């Protein structure tokens, strides 16, 4: 992958939680939050970086939570996958209003609103300068959008998974509950798993570890942080070998 003159990475996968699109409450879709994220993505795309997105659906519906309230787990997960499509379309709309050519690809067939996921087509879109948004998770119940992010990153040849969060990296305990929590600048896959730091769910994490896919966990709510990450600045926590 050819890197630009000013950036560390040429192709990145950005993993966004659904809550990131919900604004302060993390619920529903906040136009301001979506526009803020779209502006950051455009800034990175304008640097020449190829950007793919995987977005969650927790701001609308989370399958696991639904199953805890009596909805059959597989049905709940499919409902959650549909929520990710809603978020993907919201991001597409915001990006295209900023002049960024965008394609939504879905793991669930819905030809009227999104392309089917086809790896070669996704790569071709990237080569043409388009941002590709993957919705629908993996298309299978019992798998999270974290797993979808790890899977798609490897499939399309991304150099890194950028996990956008509300905190500035990975801590040894919850920094909201413990003011003495220690932030890691870098940590190995094995240490993160053994310490149960919940960077991603275990399936997603193992997939990244097995394929030596680095993960950077960073605070996406800080201005220009996404740009700083792709330019190679020490932002957040790097998870690697």
Quick summary of this structure?
With 241 residues, the chain is an alpha/beta fold. The protein is built from 8 helices and 11 strands.
Describe this structure in words.
The chain has 241 residues and is an alpha/beta fold. It has one domain: Acetylglutamate kinase-like (Carbamate kinase, 3-Layer(aba) Sandwich). 37% of the residues lie in helices and 19% in strands. The protein contains 8 helices and 11 strands. The protein has helices at 31-46, 63-68, 73-97, 119-127, 145-155, 189-194, 202-210, 225-230, and strands at 11-16, 50-55, 102-106, 115-116, 131-135, 160-165, 170-171, 183-184, 186-188, 215-219, 237-240. The strands form 2 sheets. The protein has a 9-stranded mixed β-sheet with strand order 4-3-5-2-1-6-10-11-9, sandwiched between helices. Strands 7-8 form a two-stranded antiparallel sheet. Helix 1 crosses helix 3 and helix 5 runs parallel beside helix 7 (202-210). The chain is globular. The mean pLDDT is 93.
């Amino acid at each position: 992958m050819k890197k630009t003159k000013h950036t560390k990475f040429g192709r990145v996968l950005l993993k966004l939680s659904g809550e990131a699109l919900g604004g302060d409450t993390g619920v529903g879709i906040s136009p301001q939050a979506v526009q803020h994220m779209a502006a950051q993505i455009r800034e990175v795309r304008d640097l020449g970086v190829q950007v793919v997105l995987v977005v969650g659906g927790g701001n609308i519906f989370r399958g696991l939570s639904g199953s805890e309230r009596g909805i059959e787990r597989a049905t709940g997960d499919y409902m959650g996958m549909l929520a990710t499509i809603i978020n993907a379309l919201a991001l597409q709309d915001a990006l295209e209003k900023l002049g960024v050519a965008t394609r939504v690809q879905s793991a669930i067939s819905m030809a009227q609103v999104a392309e089917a996921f086809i790896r070669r087509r996704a790569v071709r879109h990237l080569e043409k300068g388009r941002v590709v948004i993957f919705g629908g998770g993996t298309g299978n119940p019992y798998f999270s959008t974290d797993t979808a992010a790890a899977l798609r990153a490897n499939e399309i040849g991304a150099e890194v998974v950028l996990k956008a969060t509300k905190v500035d990296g990975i801590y040894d305990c919850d920094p909201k509950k413990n003011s003495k929590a220690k932030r890691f600048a870098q940590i190995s896959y094995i240490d993160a798993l053994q310490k149960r730091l919940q960077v991603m769910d275990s399936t997603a994490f193992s997939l990244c570890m097995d394929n030596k896919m680095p993960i950077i966990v960073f605070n996406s709510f800080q201005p220009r942080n996404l740009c700083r990450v792709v330019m190679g600045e020490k932002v957040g926590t790097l998870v690697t070998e």
